Amino acid sequence: MTRANRLGRSSARRTAAAPFITRLLELRSTQISSVQARETMDFFIIDNDPTCREAVGFLLEDEGHTAEGMSWSKGIERRLQLKKCDAILLELDSTLPNALAPLLELRTLRPDLPVVLLVTDDSLKMATEAMRYGGVDILEKPFRREHLVVVTERLQRFRQLNSDIERHNIQPQAP
Q1: Of 39, 57, 101, 120, which is least surrounded by CB within 10 A?
Q2: pLDDT score recorded for residue 37
Q3: In angstroms, how far is CA 169 from the centroid of its own chain?
C-alpha cells in the first residue's frame, strides 16, 4: 500500500470520526477546567484507627475538601441519609472475618457513591476482590499526600463526567 493510499484512508476515517472527536474534546476540556477549579468534595473516612481518620481528614481539608471521620457502625446508614457525601474512603480490614461486608453494605445503601479502599499490605490481595464489588480506587497505607491528591482529582473528574452524562443525557453507543 502506498503512502498516499494510507493517508487517504486515514483522512476518510478522521472525517467520519469528527463528531466523536469533537464531543470527546468538549468533555476533556470540561474535565480539565473542573480540575483546575479544584471543586470541593465532602468525604466520609471510615477507618477503625482514629489517628488515621484524623490525619487523612487533615490532608483532605488542606486540599480544600471537607471530611468527617468515623469507625464502621450501624449508624452509618443514618449519617449517609442526613449528610452530604461525595465519596467514601473505607478501610479494608483483612483481620475481620467478613472484611468486604462494609463495602457491600455501602454499595446497597448508596450505589452511586464512589468508594476508595484504604488497604495495608495484608489486605492488598483482598482489595482486588473488593474492586469487583464496587471499589473505584485503592490507597495503600501508608500513602503520601501526592497519592491522595491524585485520587481526589480522579474522583472529581469521575463526578464531573457523571454530571455531564446526566445533564446531556448521553447514552452509550454501540461500536
Answers
A1: 101
A2: 52
A3: 21
The Cα-based distances of 66 to 17, 56, 85, 147 in angstroms read 41, 11, 9, 18
Phi, psi of 165 (to 5 degrees): -65, -45
User: Measured in Å, how far apart are the chain's first and last C-alpha atoms?
Assistant: 27
pLDDT tens for each residue of 107-132: 888 888 899 999 887 777 788 888 88
Q: Quick one: fold of 40-165?
A: Rossmann fold (3.40.50)
Q: Which helix (H) or strand (E) holds 93?
A: none
- Locate the domains of the chain by residue range: 3-36, 40-165
Rounded to whole angstroms, how far apart are CA atoms 106 and 114?
10
Is-contact 148 56, C-beta < 8 A? yes
Q: How many CB atoms lie within 10 A of CB 55?
A: 15
SS3 state at 164: helix
